[in-house]
Amino acid sequence: MGDERRSSRCVGTAMAEAEIRRRVSEMLHCRMSGRIDQMLRHFAPRAIVHYTKSREGMFRPAIWEGVEALGSITRFTDENYTPLDHEILDLLVDGPKAVVRWRGSWRRVATGKIYMVDAAHFLRWEDDLVVEMHEFFERMSHPSPSCQRLSSFEELVSCKTAGLDREELERRARKIVTFPARGPDIEVIREFCSPEIVCEFVGDRARLPYAGRHVGIDALINIIRMIAVDFEQSNCEISEILIEDGRLAGRRRVEWRHRGTGRSGVVDLADFVRFQDGLIVELIEFRDSLTLLEMQGERDAV
């Protein structure tokens, strides 16, 4: 009888997760095809929406409440940027929470210029409706082919496992991002990451020189050290962590201070991590680049 109950719970959970995946896909399809009212049906009337990045030339990061506000923001965006197409890059479901990472193309109405944008949305459901959403929205960089690590045929057809249980995945993730003001612990990075890790810092390389896709533990460590030269980081607050199989996604807030200008602020970040055979093989990070640019003294950061 106990085994039957456990089996029933697993089936129910699987069905719920499958439905969340379907809804997330539908929401994105409706949003990018201009069916905004249909997208809004998935949100609770007083849903809270956190925008952690400025929309280019439009409005700054803010917290909005209610579907009317969300609809107004979305329609105003489409008046200035016409959505063209999109693809889902990753989707994790963990209980009543989900996070989707996706890429879309937009045409700016005023200039006709096309922008490629990487985005991530953390969604929390209650009573079958989204009650809270955190958005990370960043113009993507264009990595050169040499920055890509192509999988071998054996890697593509073989089944790789994380090699760690859920608790250990979370423990390692927390240890990597929780560090003193002097910066991340390089020895911990070497211990937990694959020598051939693929890391991507989402953003425009013209503004953030380390943005883009990089391969290898030494490349990751060099970027960490480069950031530490300009910025001091402290008081990391982990807001949430979602785990599915060997993948992990989390949001955190960190206090940053630019060593040159002395300006400080709180930066929101989102990290997507993939484990394989006990090591991190992929790290993708979004951050509030607008706040960082303003700390550097760039007044025209938007």
Quick recap:
This protein has 302 residues and is α+β, with helices and mostly antiparallel strands.
Percent range for helical residues?
Answer: 25-40%
**β-strand amount:** 35-45%
Radius of gyration: 20 Å
How many separate structural domains? Answer: 2
Tell me the layout of helices and strands:
Layout: H1 2-32, H2 36-40, E1 43-51, E2 62-65, H3 67-80, E3 81-94, E4 97-108, E5 114-126, E6 129-139, H4 153-157, H5 166-177, H6 186-192, E7 193-201, E8 212-215, H7 217-230, E9 231-244, E10 247-258, E11 264-276, E12 279-287, H8 289-295
Parallel strand pairs: 1-6, 7-12
Antiparallel strand pairs: 1-2, 3-4, 4-5, 5-6, 7-8, 9-10, 10-11, 11-12
